[in-house]
Amino acid sequence: MRINFHGAARFVTGSNHLIETKNGEKFLLDMGMFQGSKQEEKLNFEELPFAASEIDFVILSHAHIDHSGRLPKLAKAGFNGKIYTTPATKDLTEIMLSDSAHIQESDAEWENRKRERKGEALIEPLYEQADVDKAMGLFETYRYGEIFQVSENIKVRFRDAGHILGSAIIEIWVTEDDKTAKLVFTGDLGVKGHSLINDPEYIDSADYIIMESTYGNTLHSNYGDSLENLMSTIERVTSEGGTVIIPSFAVGRTQEIIYELNKHYELTHGGQNNPIKFFVDSPLAVRATKVFTENTNILHAEAQELIRSGDNIFAFPNLFYTKTVEESKALNTDSSPKVIISASGMATGGRVVHHLKHHLWDEKNAVIFVGYQAQGTAGRLISDGIDKIKLAGDWIANNAQIYNMPGFSAHADQAYIMEWLGQYERKPNRIFLVHGEEDEMYPLRDLIQTELDIKVVTPGLHSYVDLNFNDLDEIDMHEVSEANELQERALLDKQIDKIKLMLAEIEDREIDSSDMDREKRQAILRKLNELEDNLMDFNMLSGR
User: Fold this and answer.
1) 345-367: per-residue pLDDT in tens?
2) Region 529-537: what's the mean pLDDT?
3) Is this structure's pTM higher than 0.90?
4) Does 256 fall in a domain?
5) Which residues form a coiled coil (predicted)?
6) Is residue 529 part of a domain?
7) 3-state helix, strand, coil in the chain (%, to 5)
8) 237 and 378 assigned to the same domain
9) Is 269 part of any domain?
């Protein structure tokens, strides 16, 4: 059996792994979209590294766009097999892909307007709604715990990953030459101790594991402490006249935040003494919340008990769901204190960008990040404390109070990954770490090998490994150079953006040479001459 790592390999997004068996089957684990840096996003438009028509089926771990987002592209390219997943994941994926298609079409239209003015060739969107419809027609769902046969030599079972509604750890049994090996794909492994989504299930055995490592070198703060911090920050900032912006993933994180706010304001305080207005400003989040209400049977027992008691777990006094663009825009002309929960979670697009544009500059306001911020995203730059950032066409000062609350993360941290792996009754022969940046992945690799005595591989983009079912400890790893090249290109893009920001800051500054002595003027002149020379060299090297 061969595993090809075509995405989320030494970075977080674009989850996509091609499995080829000795019997001739070819199937995919996830078909996610690349997000983050410009170089990563460009990968979405590259030719697929396999023939779509030759793929027999896809197994989808969950609905998040970095795991499902290129399924319409796959269908558009000729894939006609089944897409296996859980019922809730199918429901969430449908709304997420439709939203993504709208974004692809809008982005292509905007880009083509610029190209038309320049006389350049027009581009097509990555995919359209028709491609989404085709992909959704290929879905076949199974519940947690069911073992189902996908071919004569392959059977599959979904287990609860505890990440978002419907997310699955995937157990796969593959038979070659009368020998069977078990592959486990964690998808995105969740956390324990949250009260809307169940804890991840433990798995008793595996020969090989493809494992996420998003927070492989991080320890999350306590969930209860994060909740207390969230509530106290909201109440303090709004009491001082400020607005709180919470960039939040539309699917999963938004519902969890609303659920916890409901418990805090409606159940703990009986709905009294809540002068704060909360707005959920994300059409996708509104649709996703409806899916949650239709799949309550797989929610955490606490949430199910609240529902049986008559509570609407996604509603409380002074919570409003915006319905129109006009309602969204009105939030930014209203100076009264409030909380706006809006997507996207990494501030790469969506309505939250406009809310940040109107509130980030004011130090009385606050931005609370409750999820992972990938390298190169606006959320990461704001979180890291950049002085200014371009939002919706304008440079905005980063003056607001910035808070990171990783305790809300739906990804396992290092401690829980080690605990989860420690529950295996039969240890795997190899773990392949994916879905993580190198500074998170490599320390986890070393810890697993030292503490659990399991061999770990960290494959790069488009690398592959050949596995021998006759000797499960024997592997043949083939690395390629593309992963390092991608990281170098991403680093270059990041540095160029940093220089552009510095130049924009110079443009905005008033420099009065009349207040300088002669020595300082001459020193600045020398630096400007050096800068001019370096910019000329840059233009030559970059082909301009």
Assistant:
1) 999 889 999 999 999 999 999 99
2) 81
3) no
4) yes
5) 489-541
6) no
7) 40, 20, 40
8) yes
9) yes
Instruction: Retrieve residue 263's tokens.
Output: 């418990």
Residue 10 zone, left/alpha/beta (φ > 0; ψ -120 to 50; rest): left
> What whole-number distance in Å separates Cα of residue 112 and Cα of residue 104?
12
Are 285 and 322 in contact by the 8 Å Cβ rule? The answer is: no
Q: How far apart are CA 231 and CA 529, in angstroms?
A: 53
In this structure, the answer to whether residues 195 and 205 fall within a common structural domain is yes
Give me the DSSP letters along 373-435: --TTSHHHHHHTT-SEEEETTEEEE--SEEEE-GGG-SS-BHHHHHHHHHT-SB--SEEEEES
Burial class (CB in 10 A: 0-12, 13-18, 19+), 65: buried
Helices (H) and strands (E) in the chain, counts: 16, 23
Which residue segment(s) compose the domain that 465 sits in?
A: 2-218+410-488
**pLDDT averaged over the chain?**
92
Q: Residues 270, 415: one domain? A: no
Is residue 530, in this structure, part of any structural domain at all? Answer: no
Whether residue 233 is found in the same domain as residue 337:
yes
Q: Are 391 and 356 in contact (CB under 8 A)?
A: yes
SS3 label, residue 269: coil
Do 74 and 196 fall within a single domain? yes
- Among 250-254, 429-433, 484-488, the least confident range: 484-488
Residues 142 and 59 occupy one common structural domain: yes
280 and 359 share one domain: yes
Q: pLDDT digit string (tens) for 440-477?
A: 999 999 999 999 999 999 999 999 999 999 898 889 99
Strand ranges, E, within 243-324:
243-247, 278-281, 319-321
Q: Domain check: are 153 and 51 in the same one? A: yes
Tally of domains in the chain? 2
316 burial level (CB within 10 Å; 0-12, 13-18, 19+)? buried
